[in-house]
Write a structure and sequence with these properties.
mainly alpha, 17 helices, globular, 432 residues
Amino acid sequence: MILSFKKFIRASFLFTCTSAFVTQPFVASTATTTALMTATARAAADCAAASTAINFEEHSKSYKELLERLREITHLNHAAAVLNYDRQVFMPQSDRPQSSRGKQLAVLATIAHEKATDPSIGKLIDEATADLNELLKSSAEESVESLATARRILEIEKDAYTKSTCIPKELAARKASLEASANHAWVKARQSNDFASFAPALKDCFDLAAEIASLQRGDNAEISLYSQMLDQFEMGMPSSRIDELFEQVQSTLFPFIAKIRASENAPSLEALSGKFNIDAQKSACQKIVTAIGFDEGHGRIDVSVHPFTMSLSGADVRITSRFSDDEWYQGLMGTIHEGGHAMYEQNLGDSELSLDSALSMGVHESQSLFWERHIGKSRAFYEWARPILMEAFNTDDNKFEYSAEELYAAVNAVDFNNLIRVEADELTYPLQ
């Protein structure tokens, strides 16, 4: 059954490019032969292109050394990610161990920052760029395309180097330490429902972000601090464009929400509540998220206070979710959402360079929300997932005998009283 769902998902993506062969496999022999001949010709062209492709590392010692240095920085950042994941998932949550972990992360951040801002990095970027430009002048047109990746790497790393050199190493260390201490403060405040105790740490986070953005912006007053901050999450996207997009969303959703609020056809939420064994929830979520494509051979699934995804390397992308024994839906959606993030990360390139990292938060969220909202809230999904949920939740102590249609209606209900963004329904989520 799980295998069938995997095939269904994959087939839905492949259908458009294979339908000509699938719908008429026996009568389209001529078309098939033509297609095979075309494919053979393309393969030959690809081989010819490969023979003229240029390996820029062989032509530029500076570029080769630059990549080696950049990968070293990547490994340091991944080591910090291991400590960070452990901090949020496995290690004791009391003050002393959390404080010690913050210091460890600050040291790693200092080392990584020193290596990333070493003047030799800037020199290597400039030398490699000069080598590339010289090679482009003398290269045949068919060889130029093979240098596009090197060109983009140099562009990205030049921008990263410029931004990093604006920040002193002491500030980089303070940022790493504050991220750890602020998260710990938030966890404690959440447990006691005491926002006031978290407010000072939150202010420190805002102040530090503004300080870094101000240093990176320099004297260019035409760029707002928010646009400067935004650039690290959405490269090249000004805040004015974000305002335009949000205005479209708001102007469309407000009247629609008013219409929904006035409706008397509220679906039943009964299927969402009851008593649900936590281990049974974890097992069901594991079956579902691996069925849709999360690779446990290159990651793992854990529990944390707040669901998140963290890449410890391109070959180790981990996700967490959270569970409650009086409802099951949030744990499942958290798992699917983070699974969407992780599947995106698990399928990035393996160069260990920024080029193969997530350069757009918008693209990243599109992947998680595609799986959570478009798949995980669909009628077809609950027709498939219902047996898994029934097996997990239908016990002698808790009857769970809802139809796929009842589950579909319940998970798509609009909750106007919810104030927690990650638990919001699809309609009010963009407004939180």
